[in-house]
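Subject: Sanity check before I submit

Could someone independently write out the structure tokens for this chain? I want to compare against mine line by line before I put it in a report. The sequence has 144 residues.
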Amino acid sequence: MNQNNFTTILTENCLMQTEEQVRNFENALTAIAKNPDENNLSAYHLTLEGQCQEPEVMFGLIHFLEYFDMKTQISAFIHVIPQLIITAPEWTRIIHNRILNHESACQVYQNLLHSANLNSPHFLYHLLEESIMNKLQVKESVLT
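---
Independent answer below. Compare away.
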């Protein structure tokens, strides 16, 4: 089975309303993790589902995403934010906060958001950039 088939299985089972859906999701994620494809990072992000019945299993997907090269993963995240914020606002916030809490990831995020805002302005990108600036200001004031 190829990566697209496994990604489809993730999408079809992301609500995890039954034991079978949980098992299918976990098995597909395991198969994808054996041969991850950064070209599918956007699709992996979009598998996050706000109505998921098994958040601890969904966290497995979050951890999987974090194994990719930081810049590549954050770039894919930024690309899907406008759609992801609609389908999975809580997961979007979780990823955003996890990036903010990692110093080097925060810098990469800030730079990529700034570029994204210059290339294709979006109010979400602007809001996220502001939250990074606020986080950095708070951190700076604590250190001084």
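---
OP: Matches mine. For the report I'm noting this point. The mean pLDDT is 91.
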